[in-house]
Amino acid sequence: MHILKTWKESDKELIEELKSRSFLDRGIEPEVQRIVEGVERHGDGAVASYTLEFDGVRLRTGEFTVKKESIDQARRQVGRRFASVLREIERNLVSYHRRQKPKDWRMDVGNGSSVGERWLPLRRVGLYVPAGKAPLVSTVLMGVVPAKVAGVKEIVVCSPPTRDGEIDPHILAACAMLGVKEVYRIGGAQAIAAMAIGTETIPRVDKIFGPGSVYVTMAKKILYGRVGIDIVAGPSEILILADESAEPAFIAADLLSQAEHGTGREVCVLVTDCDALAEKVRRELERIADGGSRTADSEIRNPKSEIPNVREESSRKDAKTQRKA
Questions:
Q1: What is the C-alpha radius of gyration for the chain, rounded to an integer number of angstroms?
Q2: 3-class DSSP state of 166
Q3: Which letter, b or e, does each residue of 45-62 get, where b requires 16 or more Cβ atoms within 10 Å of its Cβ?
Q4: Count of C-beta atoms within a 10 Å radius of residue 84
Q5: Second label for 141, Cα 20 to 30 Å away, from 7, 20, 25, 86?
Q6: C-alpha span between 176 and 178 (Å, rounded)
Q7: Is the pLDDT of residue 320 over 50?
Q8: Does residue 130 surpass a pLDDT of 80?
Q9: What spatial distance separates the first Cα and last Cα of the chain, rounded to whole Å?
Q10: 93 neighbors 141 (Cβ within 8 angstroms)
Q11: What is the DSSP string of 305-322?
C-alpha cells in the first residue's frame, strides 16, 4: 500500500501508469485460440489434457461431472451459519431481480396491427465460478439467482478443481441450495470453450456468465458470436472519493472487496484531500491484514509491487483548485 501525492514529481509516473494500463493482454490471444481450437477438434480429450496442463489435475472424461451425492454432501458439510447467510442473500437478490425483470407489452397501432415486446428466458446458460484464491460463492449467487428469476430451465456451473480434483464444498453447497444440478470440475479457457462449443460430456449453452482470469476473459471474447456472453470484463478496480467525514472502516472494506480477488492486477484507489483520513484507512487496512485476511501479503503489504494494489492518493492541492473553480 502506498500513499501518493498528486503534486509530487516522484509519484506522477506511477499515477500515469495506473491511468494508462491495458485491461486485456493481447499477447495471450494465440495461446487461448489454441485451447479453443483444441476443444473444438478433440472435445473431452482436449479438456482433460488442458486440465492436466494448467491445473495439474488428471481427470478422465467421465470425472468432469460432479455427482449429485457430492453436491448433497457438501450441503450437509458447510454448517447452519453458512446456510442461513446464503438464504438471506438469496431472498434479497430474488426480491431485487423480480423488480428488475422486464414485462411484456403490446400496443394496437390501427388497421388490425399491433407492436410490442415479449421477453423469453434463455433455455440453457453457463456460469463460470473462479476458485483460484478463494471460493467465490458470491458468483454462484449473483449468476444463478437472476437466471432462476428469469425462468432459465438449465443452469450449468463450471469451476476449476483443486489439486485433489475436487471443487470447494462451499461452492457446491451454494449450488445445491440454489437448485443447480449440473456442475463440472473444469476451469480456465477450456471450460469456456466447452460450454460455448459443446463436448461429448458437456452440452453447449446459449450464453456464458461470470468473471475469471485474463484467459477466461480472452476465451469469452474469442467465442462471442458463437455463444452469448455477459461482458468482456477488465481487471478488478475501484476508485473511492472521500473527504474527512468518511468512515475509514467502510473505505477499507470497499477497497479490499476488489483487492481480495488476488490476481495481482487489481487496482484499488482512494482519492482524498484529508491526510488524516488516508492514515486512518492505512491503519484499518493493516488491522484487517493482521487479522488473517487472505489479502494481507499479496494485496496490502506489497512494497515491491510494480503497480501496488491498494493506493491512497492525497489530492489536497487539486481539491482546493476545484473548490475555487
A1: 23
A2: coil
A3: ebbbbbbeeebebebeee
A4: 10
A5: 25
A6: 5
A7: no
A8: yes
A9: 32
A10: yes
A11: -SS-SEEEEE-HHHHHHH
Q: Which residue has the cell 453458512?
A: 82
Residues 214 and 218: their CA atoms lie apart, in Å, by 6
Count, residues in the chain: 325
pTM score, whole prediction: 0.80
Torsion over CA of 85, 89, 91 and 95, rounded to 10 degrees? 160
Residue listed under C-alpha cell 415486446: 117
Task: Report which secondary-structure segment, H or E, holds 43.
Answer: none
Three-class SS state of 294:
coil
Q: Which residues contact 57 (CB under 8 A, 6 or more apart)?
A: 51, 161, 162, 163, 165
- CB of 29 closer than 8 Å to CB of 222: yes
pLDDT 10s digits, 219-254:
999 999 999 999 988 777 888 999 999 999 999 999
